[in-house]
Amino acid sequence: MRRALRVGLTLLAFLVAWEAGALALGPESLPSPRLVAARLAEVTATGGPRDRSALYHLGRSLARVAVVSVLGLALSTALGLAMGVDDRAERVVAVWLPFWMTVPTLVVILVVMVLLDFSEPAVVVGVTFVATPFATANVWEGARAVDPALLEMARAFDVGRWGVVREVYLPATLPQVVGSFRYLLGMVWKVVVLAETFGLQAGLGAMFRFWFNQGDVTAILAYLSLFVVVMVGLQYALGAASDRLFAWRG
User: Residue 216 maps to which CATH number?
Assistant: First the structure.
């Protein structure tokens, strides 16, 4: 109840500040929440360019976010566990991980989009490349923190390497894996929208580019507010599920 009250008060304060800013700057520079809400209802109900509604573009963007998040989680979990289990894998990947994490996101997206001809796979490949190293580092840290006594017990019972990964490392790193998924989801949607602005014809990023070219700030904010509300809702749902999953740790 208290959390819901805090969220409600924060949202109210944000809307009040937004309305005040709109009054001070004028609707041409900053449309008011009421104007944005009215435009959102319009583009959701009647459609926009090519008679495709905001919900269509939201669905396309969310599909890309889902694919990249799952793919990035699978790759980062595999790499992180490999680094924790095998010293050779750790030495190889750890050398490249800092470079991988520091390459500018915009440069990676632009290069991949050009190489793959501004296609759907270009978005998946580019965003996965950008997001995976951060989650990999998180899973790796979890794997390094595994209790040595558990590994000693596994060796005493002659458990094979895959058995150790399945029975020791995976359960021990599950909090880091879940946390990595939440991080990926939060990062990926922003980079997906960025990639969509570079040439795709569907998705919220494509709509941002279209309405920016039209000089329609109200439409841009309408599409943005729709995606932010959905993503915040997903993050809240994942947080609640994570709290229930790891309630035993408290």
Answer: 1.10.3720.10
Q: Per the domain annotation, does 41 fall within a domain?
A: no
Total domains present in the chain? 1
Whether the CB-CB separation of 222 and 212 falls below 8 Å is answered with no
- The answer to whether the CB of 197 falls within 8 A of the CB of 206 is yes
d(CA 12, CA 18): 10
pLDDT in tens, 161-192: 777 777 787 888 888 888 888 888 888 988 99
In whole angstroms, what is the distance from residue 192 CA to residue 190 CA? 5
Residue 184's alpha-carbon distances to 169, 179, 247, in angstroms, are 21, 9, 22
Domain hosting residue 124, numbered range: 54-249
- Burial track 82-116 (b if 16+ CB lie within 10 A, e otherwise): bbbbeeebbeebeeebeebeeeebeebbeebbeee
- How many other C-beta atoms lie within 10 A of the C-beta of residue 5? 9
Q: Identify which has the larger pLDDT, 76 or 162.
A: 76
Distance between CA atoms of residues 152 and 32, nearest Å:
63
Evaluate whether residue 60 is within a structural domain.
yes
Specify burial of residue 244 (Cβ count, 10 A radius: 0-12, 13-18, 19+): exposed
Task: Identify whether 241 is part of a domain.
Answer: yes
The model's pTM: 0.84
